[in-house]
């Protein structure tokens, strides 16, 4: 029995021809059907060059298990989440590697009710079945049904319920789809907004889906990928910029000056907006950068609840605590009223409504929060021994820490500053985030100090 190393903490991610290929995709498809005793499964894919072939393999495998495959074709991961509940399916699979390098692909999977899958809720069983590869002959009754048009129309209607079009004011918006899957879905939402009288001027860039990614892998969280959107915002005199990753389940913002807005400030902004609608509600956040979110939620009279990093864990926490909203600093945003899943399209709609209601720019909406709780942004390191690096950092700072948390990696609260150091769930990286209380100079010093310690020779 060969071990499948493409299975991660909460999804499948692997290098093509190494630990993921068409044969493995077929085994995962059949294992998914068996583990979930599925009779109806939603299937979607992103624009990567390998995604169509892998999706076809998964579809064939599901059909061999007697499953009715509801095919969405090219779509965002969130469209798959929505369709699972909309069609009452037994589960869903999106073939995507999101923002990973060109030679990667993978799958994001959910069970009935769009509920997340992890090792405790079915992922381990799928892996075991796929590794055993003992499925026997094909079963009768399987078929593929094209539901793309119906699914997208229903999805657009759900997304638009989050915004009051009457509250919108004229705005010029630059949108960067990164040649990923976002373009067609954004166009459907924009057309529906226009039909309802939304006074928006949209400037599109890198909009056409193209699996060769002629403008680079769409990952706006990386600092080197941000200037292209920032420059377009400034050149157009736009009010804001919005950019997405490859499967557009993450949404990134730029203010009118082209400044990138770090994810935790958007989390705080949306948390406050939901608490204004539902006083006393619960808000979920991840452990990487926490002070701004906790302060916003406390001031608004809500309850902040910490979850382990990762979409499966945030979704589970949202359900377990009946939270109205959850957010990660990495730009994943989760909504109770969007099948308790994450969406990259809902956040920009909420932000432009906030701008309309307040009459403020995006920069002014977050200015006080950025000053109160400056943060480093995520800094990534490729290291040979992450555990040894973490132990080295722990030894250097633990004695002076006022608080310690190991929900996800190592978090030490040093009083006026704090850091989180964790291994990525999806990539061979060590990730660092640092924050302070209203002290940008201290932040810069501590970032330099920690980076030197992490990079030091053993």
TrEMBL record:
Molecular function per GO: intramolecular phosphotransferase activity; magnesium ion binding
PROSITE patterns per record: PGM_PMM
InterPro entries linked to this entry: A-D-PHexomutase_a/b/a-I, A-D-PHexomutase_a/b/a-I/II/III, A-D-PHexomutase_a/b/a-II, A-D-PHexomutase_a/b/a-III, A-D-PHexomutase_C, A-D-PHexomutase_C_sf, A-D-PHexomutase_CS, Alpha-D-phosphohexomutase_SF
Pfam (any one): PGM_PMM_I
Keywords: Isomerase, Magnesium, Metal-binding, Phosphoprotein
Superkingdom classification of source: Bacteria
Biological processes, Gene Ontology terms: carbohydrate metabolic process
Reported cofactor(s): Mg(2+)
Location of the Alpha-D-phosphohexomutase C-terminal domain: 378-451
Domain Alpha-D-phosphohexomutase alpha/beta/alpha: 7-134, 154-258, 262-369
CDD domains named in the record: PMM_PGM (cd03089)
Record-linked PANTHER family: PHOSPHOMANNOMUTASE (PTHR43771)
Family classification: Belongs to the phosphohexose mutase family.
Official protein name in the record: Phosphomannomutase
Species whose genome carries this gene: Fuscovulum blasticum DSM 2131
């Amino acid at each position: 029995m060969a071990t499948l190393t493409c299975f991660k903490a909460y999804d499948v991610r692997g290098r093509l021809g190494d630990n993921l290929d068409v044969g493995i995709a077929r085994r995962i498809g059949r294992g998914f059907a068996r583990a979930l005793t599925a009779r109806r499964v939603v299937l979607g894919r992103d624009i990567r060059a390998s995604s169509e072939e892998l999706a076809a393999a998964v579809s064939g495998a599901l059909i061999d298990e007697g499953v009715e495959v509801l095919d969405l074709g090219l779509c965002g991961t969130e469209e798959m989440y929505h369709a699972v509940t909309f069609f009452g399916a037994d589960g869903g699979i999106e073939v995507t590697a999101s923002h990973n390098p060109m030679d990667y692909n993978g799958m994001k999977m959910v069970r009935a009710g769009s509920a997340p899958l992890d090792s405790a809720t079915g992922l381990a069983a799928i892996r075991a079945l796929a590794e055993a590869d003992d499925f026997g002959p094909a079963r009768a009754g399987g078929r593929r049904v094209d539901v793309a048009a119906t699914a997208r129309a229903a999805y657009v209607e759900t997304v638009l319920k989050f915004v009051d079009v009457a509250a919108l004011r004229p705005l010029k918006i630059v949108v960067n789809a990164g040649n990923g899957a976002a373009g067609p879905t954004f166009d459907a939402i924009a057309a529906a907004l226009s039909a309802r009288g939304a006074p928006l001027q949209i400037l599109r860039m890198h909009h056409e889906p193209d699996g060769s990614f002629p403008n680079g892998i769409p990952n706006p969280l990386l600092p080197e990928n941000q200037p292209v959107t920032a420059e377009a915002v400034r050149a157009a005199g736009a009010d804001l910029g919005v950019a997405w990753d490859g499967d557009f389940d993450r949404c990134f913002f730029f203010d009118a000056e082209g400044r990138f807005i770090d994810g935790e400030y958007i989390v705080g902004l949306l948390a406050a907006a939901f608490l204004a609608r539902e006083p006393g509600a619960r808000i979920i956040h991840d452990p990487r950068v926490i002070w701004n979110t906790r302060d916003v939620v406390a001031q608004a009279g809500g309850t902040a609840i910490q979850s382990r990093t990762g979409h499966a864990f945030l979704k589970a926490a949202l359900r377990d605590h009946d939270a109205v909203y959850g957010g990660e600093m990495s730009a994943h945003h989760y909504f109770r009223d969007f099948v308790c899943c994450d969406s990259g399209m809902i956040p920009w709609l909420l932000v432009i409504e906030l701008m309309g209601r307040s009459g403020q720019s995006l920069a002014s909406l977050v200015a006080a929060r950025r000053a109160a709780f400056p943060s480093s942004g995520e800094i990534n390191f490729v290291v040979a021994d992450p555990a040894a690096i973490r132990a080295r950092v722990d030894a250097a700072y633990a004695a002076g820490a006022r608080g310690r948390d190991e929900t996800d990696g190592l978090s030490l609260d040093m009083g006026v500053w704090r850091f989180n150091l964790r291994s990525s769930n999806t990539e061979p990286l060590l990730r660092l985030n640092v924050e302070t209380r209203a002290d940008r100079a201290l932040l810069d010093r501590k970032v330099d100090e920690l980076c030197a310690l992490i990079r030091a020779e053993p």
